[in-house]
Structure formats: C-alpha cells, structure tokens
Design a protein that fits this description.
The chain is of the alpha/beta class. The protein is built from ten helices and seven strands. The protein is 51% helix and 14% strand. Bound molecules: nicotinamide-adenine-dinucleotide.
C-alpha cells in the first residue's frame, strides 16, 4: 500500500494530454480521480478507458474560466467521493507564434482567463475545503516557459510566469495548514495542446501551422504524458516546490539565474 492509496484527486483538463497522464498514474497508485474538462466527452472517454483498467473515476464538465462551473464540479465530486485530497490545476491552452504587438488584447484576455484565472478559481474553490480537512496537496501546471520565456508566445509566457509566482506565494500560505503546493513546469510533452487550442480559440485560427515555425527552430524532446504523471506522484510524495520533467532544461534555468546574478554583480558599490 502506498501513501496515495484511497485518496481523491481532482484534475482539470483531464480529458487529454498531461491531465490524462496524471489521471492514469494516480489511478495506478490507487487513487479515485475526478476528471474535469471543458470537453466533457473527452473526460468521459478517459473515464471509460480507466474504468476498463479497474480504476475509479468521475468525469465532469468543467470550464476552469468560470467560477460557478468550479462550484458545481466540486459539489458533484464531493457527493461522489467525499472531500478531495489532491487538486491539479492543469487545464490550459496554447498561443500562436506572433510578435507581442500583433496579439489582440481579446486573445490576451482569453488566454489569461483560462491559463491564469482558471488556476485562481480552482484555488479559491478548493483551498477552504482542504483547510477544513487539514491536509492535501495542490499541483499547478505552469511550463518550462514559466521559467525561461520563449519569444513570440508572450501571452502564454506571461500567464505561465504568473502561475509560478502564484504557486510560490500559496505554498507559503498553506504550509501552516499542512497543505503542500508544487508548480509543474513541463518541457515538451506529446499531447493535443495545439489541436485542442485550435478547437477552442476565438476565431479558430490555425495554431498548428503558426507553431511549426517555432517548433522547427529547436530540437524538442517530447515525452509521454504518463511519464509526467509518474514524476508528479514523486514530486507530491517528496513535497517538491518545483516539478520539472526534462533534465536538459536545467541549463536554460541556470542561464536565467546567471543573468540575474550578473545584474547584481554589475551594481555600483
Ligand atoms: N504539452 C506540452 O508540451 C506542455 C508543456 C508545458 C506545459 N503544458 C501545459 O500543460 C497543460 C495541459 O496541456 P496538454 O499539453 O496536456 O494539452 P491538451 O490539449 O492535450 O490537454 C489540455 C486539456 O485541457 C482542456 N481545457 C482547455 N481549456 C479548458 C477550460 N477552459 N476548462 C477546462 N478544461 C479545459 C482541453 O479540453 C484538454 O482536454 C496546459 O496548462 C499546458 O499549458 C504543456
């Protein structure tokens, strides 16, 4: 028996990709998993697949950008499984490759509503419940882009940096209550992020085509979502503040901190 056996996890964006990978890893660890997704059909498909593997899951329609949707989902989750132990604020959408001045302000707001306020709503909905329980863990999905910004995706980078800052503050706030907080900063993961974003974005612009220009510039090493799920389990067990997924991202993060160190070194006496 492991420490997660019998615990209840709530994952947003669980109908695909990293959310699905976490759900698979959590079910394998003996957890009951609530699968929230704006694409409820995809959540129901994941639930059917995991049930066939002997897992206990509850698929729910959830729009993370809408607080009333969170409240309804939390009530349904608790009615089915009782109080939740683990919250994964994971749902997110991607950006088109564009210079900052070409991103319409409506698209900044659309992305911020999902990638940032989606996390805030999840925290505000579930933190009082976790405090009442006196235990638990929260994992907020940012990105390696929340540590090292990629050009031409400024609205995505800004939202992901915001999730890192938010998670750090909340980690300190919740420590006295016995609740852990980790921020997940994945590198490239083989998911449907481009496709689901195209389906949902206002105007349905061709994200995949625009992304190709950037993706072609770098060597990405894609990993499978289940691997991320297993790393997250370990990160929660060991209470990591940051959960990275790609060892090779270390050099980029160190370069960021070295640039900051140089800025301090450059200060006049
Ligand atoms: N794939 C990567 O390489 C990568 C890298 C770093 C970070 N991330 C982050 O990981 C998270 C998961 O993305 P993914 O790559 O698994 O993509 P994905 O598209 O495969 O999965 C995201 C899921 O979130 C759902 N979703 C989107 N908007 C929603 C909303 N408003 N409410 C509820 N659900 C919503 C989608 O329907 C989808 O099922 C995102 O936050 C993304 O920014 C992904």
């Amino acid at each position: 028996m492991n420490e997660f056996e019998g615990q209840v996890a709530f994952i947003s964006g669980a109908g695909s990709g990293i959310g699905r990978g976490m759900a698979e890893a959590f079910v394998a660890a003996g957890m009951k998993v609530v699968l929230g997704d704006v694409d409820g059909e995809s959540a129901r498909q994941v639930a059917a697949d995991l049930t066939a593997q002997g897992g206990e899951t509850l698929p729910l329609d959830l729009d993370v950008a809408d607080r009333t949707s969170w409240d309804a989902a939390a009530q349904q989750a608790e009615a089915a499984y009782g109080p939740i132990d683990i919250l994964c604020n994971n749902a997110g959408v991607a950006g088109l490759s564009r210079p900052v001045e070409d991103i319409p302000i409506e698209e900044w707001k659309w992305m911020t509503d999902i990638n940032f306020y989606g996390v805030v709503h999840g925290l505000q909905c579930f933190i009082p419940r976790l405090k009442a329980k006196g235990a638990g863990h929260i994992v907020n999905t940012s990105s390696i882009g929340g540590m090292v910004p990629l050009p031409r995706f400024s609205e995505y980078m800004a939202a992901k940096y915001a999730v890192v800052g938010l998670s750090g503050a909340v980690r300190q706030e919740l420590k006295p209550f016995g609740i852990g907080v980790s921020v997940l900063c994945p590198g490239a993961v083989r998911t449907s992020l481009g496709e689901t974003t195209v389906r949902q974005r206002p105007g349905r612009a061709n994200l995949a085509a625009a992304r190709g220009t950037v993706v072609g510039q770098q060597e990405w090493r894609y990993i499978e979502p289940i691997k991320v799920g297993r790393i997250v389990l370990r990160g929660m067990a060991e209470e990591w503040a940051f959960i990275f997924t790609h060892p090779e991202n270390r050099a980029e993060v160190e370069a960021q901190f070295n640039a900051m160190r140089a800025a301090f070194d450059a200060l006049p006496d």
